[in-house]
C-alpha cells in the first residue's frame, strides 16, 4: 500500500463520539456580527498576506470579494475560513488567480472543495487543512499536481473512503475521525510520507503488505485491533520484512 514509511501511525478511536456540532450562525466570530462587515478581511499589512473569509455568508460573496484583489500581490500566505456554518463549498475559480501557501478551514459546514480552486496554488501550497467540517469527498486525484504540499489535514470530516494516494511531497496525512471503511491498498506513491493518521470503522480492512514499516508498537496496534474486533475488519501485514514490536 504505502511504500517507504519511516514510521506508520495508525490511530483508531472507534468509540470516540462522532459528529461534532457545526457552528451556528450565532457562533460566528464576533467581528462578523456588526453591520456592513466584509465577507473577507484582507490583512496585507497587519498580518502579512492573509485573507480571512470567516464572515462570508455564501460562496458567491467570497467569489465577488476576490474579483478585485486589494492586496499588492496575488501571492498570499494564508487563507482562513473558520467558525462558519454558511459556506458549503469552495467552488471552481473562487480565488481567481490568487495563490496561497496555507489554506486553513476549521469548524465549518464545508462539504466540498473543487480541485480547480486549488489550481492557482498548485506550486505554492504547503499546507491544506480542512478539519471539524462536513467534507464528504476530497479531490485526492489532484494531489500529484500540488508539488509542494507537505501537510494534508482532513481529520474530523465525513470521508468514507480513501483512494491510492500519489504525492511526491506529502509528509503528513491525517484522516482521523472520519467514517472511513475503505482504503485503496495498491498504487500508493508517497515516497516522503512519514505520518499517516486514521481511525477505522469496525469492518475496515487494512492492508499493510510490502511496506518498509520498521516499527508498529502495541500502543498503536491495540486500539486498531479493538476497533476491528467489533466487526469483520482485518489487518494484513503479510510479507513484512522488518521485525515488529507488538
Ligand atoms: C473585499 O474585502 C475588502 C475588505 O477586507 C474590501 O476592502 C474590498 O473592497 C472587497 N472587494 C470587493 C471587490 O468587494
Ligand atoms: C479549530 O476550531 C476548534 C473549535 O472552534 C478550536 O477549538 C480549535 O482551536 C481550532 N483549531 C485551529 C487549529 O484553529
Ligand atoms: C460488519 O459486517 C457484518 C457482517 O458482514 C455486518 O453484519 C455488520 O452490520 C457490519 N458492521 C458495520 C458497522 O458495517
Compact summary:
One of its GO terms (biological process) is monoatomic ion transmembrane transport. With 246 residues, the protein is mainly β.
Structure description:
With 246 residues, the chain is mostly beta strands. It has a domain at 18-159: Leucine-rich repeat, LRR (right-handed beta-alpha superhelix) (Alpha-Beta Horseshoe), CATH 3.80.10.10. It is built from 2 helices and 14 strands. It has helices at residues 59-65, 218-228, and strands spanning 41-43, 50-52, 78-84, 89-90, 102-108, 112-113, 127-131, 151-153, 161-162, 172-175, 182-183, 195-198, 205-207, 234-236. The strands form 4 sheets. Strands 1-2-3-5-7-8-10-12 form an 8-stranded mixed beta sheet, with no helix packed on it. The longest helix is centred in the last third of the chain and has 11 residues, at 218-228. Bound molecules: 2-acetamido-2-deoxy-beta-D-glucopyranose (3 copies). Keywords: Cell membrane, Disulfide bond, Ion channel, Ion transport, Membrane, Signal, Transmembrane, Transmembrane helix, Transport. Residues 1-19 form the signal peptide. It is found in: Cell membrane.
CATH architecture label name of the domain at 18-159: Alpha-Beta Horseshoe
Q: Which CATH class of the domain at 18-159 applies here?
A: Alpha Beta
Q: Classify the fold: give the CATH topology of the domain at 18-159.
A: Leucine-rich repeat, LRR (right-handed beta-alpha superhelix)
Radius of gyration: 19 Å
What's the order of the H and E elements? Answer: EEHEEEEEEEEEEEHE
- Outline type: globular
Number of strands: 14
The H-level CATH homologous superfamily of the domain at 18-159, spelled out, is Ribonuclease Inhibitor
Low-confidence stretches: 1-19, 210-215, 237-246
The helix/strand class is: mainly beta
What level of helicity do the residues show? under 10%
Count of runs of 4 or more consecutive helical residues: 2
What integer is the average pLDDT? 79
Strand order of the largest sheet: 1-2-3-5-7-8-10-12
- Termini gap: 21 Å
Amino acid at each position: 500500500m504505502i511504500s517507504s514509511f519511516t514510521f506508520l501511525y495508525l490511530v483508531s478511536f472507534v468509540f470516540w463520539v462522532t459528529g461534532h456540532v457545526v457552528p451556528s450562525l450565532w457562533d460566528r466570530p464576533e467581528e462578523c456580527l456588526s453591520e456592513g462587515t466584509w465577507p473577507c478581511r484582507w490583512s496585507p499589512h497587519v498580518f502579512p498576506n492573509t485573507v480571512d473569509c470567516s464572515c462570508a455568508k455564501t460562496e458567491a460573496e467570497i467569489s465577488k470579494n476576490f474579483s478585485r484583489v486589494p492586496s499588492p500581490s496575488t501571492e498570499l500566505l494564508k487563507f482562513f475560513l473558520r467558525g462558519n456554518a454558511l459556506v458549503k463549498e469552495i467552488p471552481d475559480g473562487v480565488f481567481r488567480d490568487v495563490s496561497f501557501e496555507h489554506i486553513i478551514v476549521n469548524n465549518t459546514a464545508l462539504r466540498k472543495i473543487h480541485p480547480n480552486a486549488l489550481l492557482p496554488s498548485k506550486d505554492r501550497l504547503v499546507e491544506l487543512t480542512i478539519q471539524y467540517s462536513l467534507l464528504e469527498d476530497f479531490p485526492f486525484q489532484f494531489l500529484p499536481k500540488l508539488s509542494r504540499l507537505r501537510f494534508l489535514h482532513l481529520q474530523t470530516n465525513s470521508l468514507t473512503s480513501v483512494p491510492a494516494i500519489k504525492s511526491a511531497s506529502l509528509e503528513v496525512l491525517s484522516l482521523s475521525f472520519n467514517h472511513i471503511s475503505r482504503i485503496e491498498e495498491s498504487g500508493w506513491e508517497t515516497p516522503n510520507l512519514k505520518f499517516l493518521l486514521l481511525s477505522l470503522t469496525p469492518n475496515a480492512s487494512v492492508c499493510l503488505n510490502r511496506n518498509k514499516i520498521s516499527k508498529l508498537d502495541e500502543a498503536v496496534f491495540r486500539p486498531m485491533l479493538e476497533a476491528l474486533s467489533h466487526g469483520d475488519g482485518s489487518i494484513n501485514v503479510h510479507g513484512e520484512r522488518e521485525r515488529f514490536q507488538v
